[in-house]
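Sample A.
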Amino acid sequence: MKALVLADFYDLQVLEVDRPTLEPHDALVRILYTGICGSDIHGYTGENGRRRVGQIMGHETVGILEELGADVAPRGISLGSLVTINPLVVSAEDLLRYPGREQHAPSMWVLGVRADRPAAFAQYTVIPAANLVPVGELDDPRVGALIEPLAVAIHAVARALEKCCADSALIIGGGPIGQMLNIALARVGVNSRTQVEPHEARRSVCCSLGACAIDPAALERDILAGRRWPVVFDAVGASQTLESALAAADVGGTVCLVGMHSPTLTVDAYAISTQERTVVGSFVYSRMDFDAAAAYSVEQGARLVPLIDSVVSLEEAPAEFARLAADGTAAAARVLVDMTPPLDSL
């Protein structure tokens, strides 16, 4: 099979590799589309230290179930079904010990991050069958590659609204995760959404999703004029954006940190303590969040299609990674890689 291999940092190559081995509890999936995540770009450049030279990345994906391991009960999913993959893999024991918060399990590993497991930038991948989620009712199979980032946003919204009710929200960052937060907030009825994004093309996408999209200068003017929001999402994760999030949060309000631009941030502690604001961290999702994202995508897939910026072939993917690494705003929304072979090679 062909796969996109990280031959070195800043060097992705399309190579022929062995098809992964199917173990008794696994499923073999023929990949259709895989999304390029910001973490994949950071892995490509070597910035985040979470990818290794020689590995096959990719975790936002959709494909066709081709084969089940000998010990797998079908569970209502038949061969040939359209499926997405929950990339957070947890042992059977930890699934029982950490229900509803599987992402906290010590055994958890992530497809596309773990270097010794070929992932979804390949024509086939193997995953524990328990991580399959059927999405056969999707009108557009490409939407299946958006379910994983939507699950991230659904989890963050649940975390932020766990201890407060809000009829309005501010999202700082209009990239792919910020756009998903926009949709996840609309899903739970937060209809007044303001989104801060410096780049016009991304602001246009945010507006199409129902947000009032403004640039950072407009946010600063709003803050100076005394405007505040009960809940604020930092979808960037930099010291400057966290400072803006705290300044924009109401007294007693909540700031949810979703973005992971920098591992260490400078924080104005007084902006938290003296105004009794709550800062909530959010990382990935539970299985319940992922299943909710899949269900919403089946029901409201048309709302997600505008988040697909472009689709490139496997052969075009190395150049696309280089373009996105050179300019993080080169894509207004998500770029998908079409992993299917061209018709002339069949």
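Sample B, a different protein:
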Amino acid sequence: MTTTSLPLESVLILLAIGAVVGAAACAAFFLATRSRQTDDLQATESAMAPIAESLQALAAQVERHERTNVAAQTELRSTLTTTWESQVQVLQRSTDEVRREASRLAEVLSRSGARGRWGEMQLRRLVEASGLLDRVDFVEQATVGSIDATGRPDMIIRLAGDRSVVIDAKVPLAAFLEAEQATDDATLQVRLQQHADAVVRHIDALRARDYQRLVPSTAEFVVMFLPSEALLETALQVRPDLLDYAFERNVVPATPTTLFALLRTVSLTWRQERLAEHAQEIRTLGIELHHRLATMAAHFARVGSSLDAAVANYNKAVGSLETRVLVTARQFGDLGTGDAPLEPPTLLHTTSRPLSAPELIADVG
């Protein structure tokens, strides 16, 4: 078999033609691909346009909210600052007013007469709150005494059973107020000790008055009323044995809380006493009512008997009228002298109802 070889020039021409065709094909493919990418990019940009607009609107709204929030925070900070300053001023004025009132109160209570009236006023309020009635269950400022001694307690509480309790109000306030105003510990301790000593002196004074001997049928103790819980509590801090000291001398220190409990118990005792008295009165009234009911039952029985007798007599009269009178009267009609027939009277068959209650029958019998 014979092979024919191409000239070199033909080969080169063929190679050149192949290269040109390949380049043309590559160019055509590149141009087609670039055209498709351009179309996709335009489509993507068209699709992203609304999103971009929304993001821009959202950014603008966030910016407006930020400006509004900053303005609101500034206004709120300014309002809170103004309100706080106003409240501080009001609190400062209130504190100053309370301090002035406390100072005036301390000045007033520094006088012995004012302290005594304050203690008596507190005592009376407690008595009224507990339910005891003025001039009925308690006596104020009663002068009591014997041949060789007299006394005037603030109050005598009468108990059921002809017993009584003496109450005397004491207000050891001078040293207590000075202790409240002390600026150093040494002065504070001195004033507290003076306050405790004042309470002890009041206990000794009540013991010396011997109200148990002056007031008839009184209890074996005297109540020393302190119109503030702090007065007794402060004294107990200095003298823990204060209560034992007072009890040994038949004196019972009482604050508003403890005295109210005592007075409330007395009030309840009086209430029970009144209920017992009312029960006796109710029993007496019941016996009297029963006796009067028995008397009334006897009266009704006699009325019923009288009614029955009246009915019987009426029926007898009717019988006599029918059998004796009307027979003769009808003869006038038979002779032509009567205008109308005579009707016979009606008998009564109703009788009075007898008493049936056993107690009424027994009482009547």
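Observation for Sample B: The chain is about 70% helix and 10% strand.
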